[in-house]
Amino acid sequence: MNPEAQRTPELEELLIDAEADDDEVQHTPPQVSRPWLLLLGLVLVALNLRPALSSMAPLLSDVSASLGLSAAKAGLLTTLPVLCLGLFAPLAPILARRFGAERVVLGIVLTLAGGIILRSAFGEVGLFAGSLIAGASIGIIGVLLPGIVKRDFARQAGAMTGVYTMALCLGAALAAGATVPLSHVFGDRWSMGLGFWMVPAVVAALVWWPQVGQRHGAHRVAYQVKGLLRDPLAWQVTLYMGLQSSLAYIVFGWLPSILISRGLSATEAGLALSGSIILQLISSLAAPWLATRGRDQRLAIVVVMLLTLGGLFGCLYAPLDGLWGWAILLGLGQGGTFSLALTLIVLRSRDAHVAANLSSMAQGFGYTLASLGPFAVGLVHDWTGGWSAIGWIFAVIGLGAIIAGLGAGRARYVQVTSEKR
């Protein structure tokens, strides 16, 4: 990508100011004395941003049977955490300005661990309350990490976004594949399988702890970003984030149930989901790197979305003897769609302050929109008594994501101002 080649006269003055700000940040003494420890912390925190979501799907039938949940409540259980991702995302920059991004990440990782314990050990009320807390925690942390990447790894933003996305995918894959076997190890207790995932959250908090002591308030300067909600490019990034996420959370929430209804066991369905997510590791790292080698990201967005749709339709309609081929296709597509969504937040922003606010907008509005996908799948399944009709949901969401991505993938910056308060 070469944004310099596509600067408009209207942006020139803003870009000069932004470059001056970037130079000031880049030429001051390093704030991070041990970047390897920050990188390790980022990876471990990112590993914990999906297990609370992907661990539920393989056990959804067991949980529903154990607690007597209706189909509507089971559908709400898959939708609630995703909705909270969007509703609580706008709190992230507010908390970061008040306490500092590093302190907020530490506190919210511990809150995430508490939510996981709550949903696994306190019956139906705890299940829903813990899911809400977990979704809110993930929403807040997910907004802050792209800004930290933009700030501390500005010259490696594409590669670092790929590493961060790989960690997200790995966490999701581990939880999807290991939760059912873990519940068997603990005496066929689904609560233990779900509750296990508080352990890596606590480990991540311990490794992240040194970042709190290094900052000394250096990054708590309040910046005001104006014009973001009026910028068409910002809304295109937001729509792409939301629509591709909607497909991802349909997969997290419903793919195992779909495959079980087609004849697979719960363990086999969980492994299929886990295997698909593991394949995301490849494209989540490769897609941002390849996309930033070209003039813009539009072609890459179309390719990964077509791969995603192909994998979804294959898992839904194709014979089961070819399932793993479709799962591989789905994984390669979805790893690319999500990593490109995060990369667009960084590439369309002139500095870390804009990136943090664009991240809040894209994930706040985007995940709220994304929550409608799993909810719609549950409704259509209840209405029709089967899964065939949800192919129309895949098609509409996928087409919308391609249209939004063609706008978001252009090599431009969002046209906003960023100034100290």
Automatic annotation (TrEMBL):
Q: Gene3D superfamilies recorded for this chain? A: MFS general substrate transporter like domains
**What are the GO MF terms of this UniProt record?**
transmembrane transporter activity
- Does the keyword Ion transport belong to this entry? no
Q: Keywords in UniProt for this one?
A: Membrane, Transmembrane, Transmembrane helix
Segments passing through the bilayer: 36-54, 74-92, 104-122, 128-149, 161-182, 194-212, 233-252, 272-292, 299-320, 326-347, 354-377, 389-411
The record, for InterPro entries, names: CynX-like, MFS, MFS_Cyanate_Porter, MFS_trans_sf
GO cellular component terms attached to this protein's record: membrane
**Pfam families according to UniProt:** MFS_1
Q: What is this protein called?
A: CynX/NimT family MFS transporter
Q: Which organism is it from?
A: Pseudomonas rhodesiae
